[in-house]
Every structure is written in structure tokens, then in C-alpha cells.
Amino acid sequence: MRKWIIGAFVIATFAGCQSTPTTTAPIDEKPPATTTQPPGGGATTSGVTTGGVTGTASGTSGAVNPLKDPNNILSKRSAYFDYDQFVVKDEYRPIIDAHAKYLRANGSARAIIQGNTDERGTREYNIALGQKRADAVKKLMMLLGASEAQIETVSFGKEKPRREGHDESSWAENRRGDIVYVGE
């Protein structure tokens, strides 16, 4: 019963947070190219060819591994968070949706969501916040069709920064949830 209540709360939260209607292109289609500003600065084009989400994670069938293809949305593995927050931003939903579909299509695939924080805050606080961020990504993936058995979460807190530095741009790069596949 408690899981149903939590699930309903998460769905209501995500539905209530959306300020403008968005459409998510099916994973087989190429989304329109848009320019976005990543946390580290510099413009990038997010309209990459997504390709299919099915295929072998091991790459033994001769096909290109979609997880390692830089033109596939599955090669993007991070969702960034605002300071002191653990709500997944709408701009990272297509990435998480693609990974959820990949997991659903590849039942033997396993992922670990690694929660990270910037250097501010105590060790204990950052471990807890990193865990909340990893759990938020996992819950969204489950809502989008991934199996709970396929996803583990872990918090590294501030212990594994992506970018060294003591400024906002460095901190923004370190406030993230990373999707890592077991066996890669």
C-alpha cells in the first residue's frame, strides 16, 4: 500500500511541476535540434540521432553498441541537479526515458545510478543528498517502464567530483546522477 501511495505522489509531483506542455519524440525518431547550455558552459546541440534502444549491451552481434554510440542518446549518462535539490529537471527526462526503454528492451541489462554532490555541506549531508538524487533518477526510470530489479542506487556524495574547482560552474558539474551499466 505504501508503494502505491509513494508512486502516486511521485506521478503527481512530476505532473504538477510541468510548466509548459512538452512532447517527447519516440526513441526511434530524431528529436528536433535545440541548443542548450550545459552546467559547465558552452553550447551543445542536443538533437542527436537516437537510434533504436534495442540491441546487445555486449556488442557481440556485430551491431554498434547503442550505449557507446556518440550519436545515440544512450551515450548521455548524467542528469544534473540544482543546488540542494533532488528533483530531476525536465531537460534530462529524454535521457532517462531512453535508458528506461533500453532496460525494458534488454531484460538482462543492469544499471547503477550514482548520486553525486558538490563539495559544500557535511559528508553525511552530501551522502544523503546524493542518495536522494540517485533514488529520484531510479524512480523516474521505473515510472517510465524499467524494472526495479535492474537498477541499483549508490551515493558518492562529494567524493567523486567530475570537475575540480571551488566555483559555481565546477559545483554545477558535480551535482549529478550518473547512469552506469554493469559490465561496461
What's the SSE blueprint?
Layout: H1 2-17, E1 35-36, E2 44-45, E3 78-80, H2 93-105, E4 111-116, H3 123-143, E5 151-157, H4 168-174, E6 176-181
| CATH architecture annotation | 2-Layer Sandwich
Distance between the amino and carboxyl termini: 36 Å
Query: What order do the strands of the largest sheet run in, or round the barrel if closed?
Result: 3-6-4-5
For this structure, the CATH topology is: 60s Ribosomal Protein L30, Chain: A
**SS elements, strand count:** 6
Order of helices and strands: HEEEHEHEHE
Can you offer a commentary on this structure?
The chain is an alpha+beta fold and 184 residues long. It has a single domain (2-181), classed as 60s Ribosomal Protein L30, Chain: A (2-Layer Sandwich). Helices cover 31% and strands 14% of the residues. Helix 2 (93-105) crosses helix 3 (123-143). The N and C termini lie far apart (36 Å).
Write a brief structural summary.
The strands form 2 sheets. Strands 3-6-4-5 form a 4-stranded mixed beta sheet. A two-stranded antiparallel ribbon has the order 1-2.
Pick out its properties.
60s Ribosomal Protein L30, Chain: A; alpha+beta; two-stranded antiparallel sheet
